[in-house]
UniProtKB/TrEMBL annotation:
Keyword set, alphabetical order: FAD, Flavoprotein, Oxidoreductase
Span of domain FAD/NAD(P)-binding: 3-283
Cofactor: FAD
Name of protein: NADH dehydrogenase
BP GO annotations: aerobic electron transport chain
Domain of life where this protein originates: Bacteria
One Pfam family matching this protein: Pyr_redox_2
GO molecular function, a single term: NAD(P)H dehydrogenase (quinone) activity
Sequence similarity: Belongs to the NADH dehydrogenase family.
């Protein structure tokens, strides 16, 4: 029996399971999924968990069950390519015949002094829980600094404003306007929402230092009771330590079939893969679709296509609290209740059909 090992129960590997099970998995192949937790977590909703507007249970989806699917719960500490095994803390190594690495990402602090020590995170479910505990226990009038006005920072700031209207919230944005790579209409809409709801947006920010009760933008110090960092990501440290070729962002370079050059048995999906798009759940799922097709052909001994189709993303949807939202879909900007309704619908479809 061949053993397909999936590292990480994120969006990419969940899509792998959805496509392989129950009917496409060859009779001579078993699957082992390795993850720290016994459930899939909806990372796109961690901002709401941290803000306290959804419960922990609402951001979890049960893993599927199948006779030839087993789970190993633990922390991956090393990927041993030479011996074709995965090293797991306090457990026996897991051997593989084929491996899909989907270990996700971690915060990137850009060498800012104090950022790693004195900021909170929403990059994992356990860190999001810790962030929620910190924010929910702050007294009225506390000052919150959110560093990074990408999708995560925007959604966290807006959700936190609805959850805790008593807090003084500042959102530090490195660009000249929010979401500078998107149409200006979206930027103005989001900025106006923040102005109307009392969230201060500081553009052209450059955070140079973080202290226990202060954050420095350029050389100006701002008193703060808590800082949440949403200003950049990098691949999981296990992937960064792998002796393979990587790009400038430490993401693994791959062949067009999504495997390591020189090793057709090791694939990388999601945030750890070097791809011509910014990392996202949608990208991981589309990439997984192609990996499944490649694996099925290789298992059957069939030739691979000369090229794979270009991955095309459907767009971006974001929320501004529970009633408003924004998006860029089919080269068209959308705002307001429609955008929020679309995002809620996508999430519902995922949880109850794809999850």
């Amino acid at each position: 029996m061949k053993n397909l090992v999936l590292l990480g129960g994120g969006y990419g590997n969940m899509r792998m399971l959805l496509r392989l099970l129950p009917n496409q998995l060859p009779e001579d192949v078993t699957i082992t999924l390795v993850d720290k937790f016994p459930y899939h977590s909806l990372k796109t909703e961690y901002y709401a968990l941290a803000a306290g507007t959804v419960s922990d249970h609402e951001v979890r989806v049960s893993f599927p069950e199948h006779p030839r699917l087993k789970y190993v719960y633990g922390e991956v500490t090393e990927i041993d390519l030479d011996n074709k095994q995965v090293v797991i803390k306090d457990r026996e190594p897991v051997p593989y015949d084929d491996l899909v690495i989907g270990l996700g990402c971690e915060d990137k602090y850009h060498n800012v002094p104090g950022a790693a020590e004195y900021t909170h995170s929403i990059q994992s479910i356990d860190k999001s829980r810790e962030t929620y505990r910190t924010l929910s226990n702050l007294p009225a009038g506390s000052k919150i600094s959110i560093v990074g006005a990408g999708l995560s920072g925007i959604e966290l700031a807006s959700e936190l404003r609805e959850s805790r209207p008593d807090l003084d919230i500042k959102l530090f944005d490195r660009g000249p306007r929010i979401l500078k790579d998107f149409p200006e209409r979206l930027s103005k809409y989001i900025h106006k929402w923040f102005v109307d709801h009392g969230v201060e947006v500081i553009n052209n920010a450059n955070i140079t230092k973080v202290e226990p009760n202060a954050i420095y933008n350029h050389e100006d110090a701002y008193d703060t009771d808590a800082v949440v960092w949403t200003a950049g990501i990098q691949p999981n440290h296990v992937v960064r330590s792998m002796p393979v070729e990587k790009d400038r962002s430490d993401r693994v370079k791959l062949t067009q079939y999504h495997n390591l050059p020189g090793d057709e048995h090791v694939y990388v999906v999601g945030d750890c893969a070097s791809l011509p798009h910014a990392p996202s759940a949608q990208l991981a799922e589309e990439q997984a679709e192609q990996i499944v097709q490649v694996l099925l052909k290789r298992w059957k001994g069939e030739p691979l296509p000369k090229t794979l189709p270009e991955i095309k993303l459907k767009g971006v949807l974001g929320s501004l609290g529970k009633k408003q939202g924004f998006g860029f879909v089919a080269d068209r900007a959308i705002t307001g209740r429609v955008a929020r309704f679309l995002k809620s619908g996508v999430l519902w479809m995922y949880k109850f059909h794809n999850g």
